[in-house]
Amino acid sequence: MINPDFPQGFIVGIFSIGCIISSLPPVSAHCINVWGRRSSIIIGSATFLVGSVLQVFASSIPMILVGRFISGLSIGLLSAVVSLYQSELAPPSLRGCLTSVYQLMITAGILLASLIDHKLVHLDDGWRWAIAIQMGPALILLICMPLMPKSPRWLVQQDRIEEALNALKTVRDESEAEAELEEIIESHEKAKAICSKQRQVTF
Question: pTM here?
Answer without folding.
Answer: 0.87
